[in-house]
Amino acid sequence: MAVVGVLALQGSFNEHIAALRRLGVKGVEIRKPEQLQSVSSLIIPGGESTTMAKLAEYHNLFPALREFVEMGKPVWGTCAGLIFLANKATGQKTGGQKLVGGLDCTVHRNFFGSQIQSFEADLPVPELASKEGGPETFRGIFIRAPAILEAGPEVQVLADYPVPSNKFLDSDSFIEDKKENAEEGGKVIVAVRQGNILGTAFHPELTADTRWHSYFIKMSNANVGEEASSSSLVPAEVDITSNQQPCSDLPIFQ
Asked: Which residues bind L-glutamine (predicted)?
């Protein structure tokens, strides 16, 4: 069983670890670069993205996080974590913030407005229901939530949300971007997968429904299986039947 790391700088990392525990999976807090070496996958939780970025920079985590993603290890970002994983973010504070990147999309940082405009909604999730069973919808909790305005061709859309033209008209944080960049039909993307990266604009860790966590765990276990399969391959040039070379001298592949 894969050990899942949860970035524990700020935000809802305890809730993610509790959700993993309910599924019988060990989640460990990650605060330092070297701790990433002990986990096979990583969750970047929701929180305040600017604060998380500053703390990550203070602990010199960005190089290690980028390497983790580039190595193809499964990473899931929820809310602020989604912003972290995007290749591009708009609607940021003055000066912007560092991103880990890897997810070919453009995210608007506070698309749905301020804290008081947080909401819940039932999202159609056919891919999740197909893989994990249960209802055809998932109750998404959006707290100062981002939204994906554009996604690359290799990004699989797992959930979107309709945005009426008159919704949140009292918020000036996203109206221009919504008019120019929102998906056709007045929808924005709120959950995606691209290879080893999963992203949700909402907070599954704040619900009793653990299907997103189960979906991610299966991504993690599949990756561990692939690594084990790769490490068991014997290079063609090594003659394992020869008694001329002691086992301790054979090359080790990890």
From this structure: 47-49, 109, 143-144
Where does the pLDDT of residue 186 fall: very low under 50, low under 70, confident under 90, or very high at 90 and above? confident
The CA distance from 5 to 146, in Å, is 23
Positions at the binding site for L-glutamine: 47-49, 109, 143-144
Q: Are 11 and 46 within 8 A, CB to CB? A: yes
Report angle CA 173, 178, 182 to the nearest 5 degrees. 145
Would you call 88 helix, strand, or coil by DSSP?
Answer: strand
144 neighbors 114 (Cβ within 8 angstroms): yes
- Choose the catalytic residue: 15, 79, 108, 213: 79
The whole-number pLDDT of residue 245 equals: 37
Please give the Cα distance from 47 to 83 (Å, whole number): 11
Say which residue, 254 or 225, is predicted with more confidence: 225
Domains and CATH numbers, the chain: 3-170+185-227 (3.40.50.880)
C-alpha distances in angstroms, 222 versus 34, 78, 109, 186, 219?
23, 21, 31, 35, 5
- CA-wise closest residue to 108 among 93, 89, 95, 122: 89
- Whether 205 is catalytic is yes
Tokens of 19: 């959700």
Q: Answer yes or no: 79 catalytic.
A: yes
**In whole numbers, what is the pLDDT of the chain averaged over residues?**
84
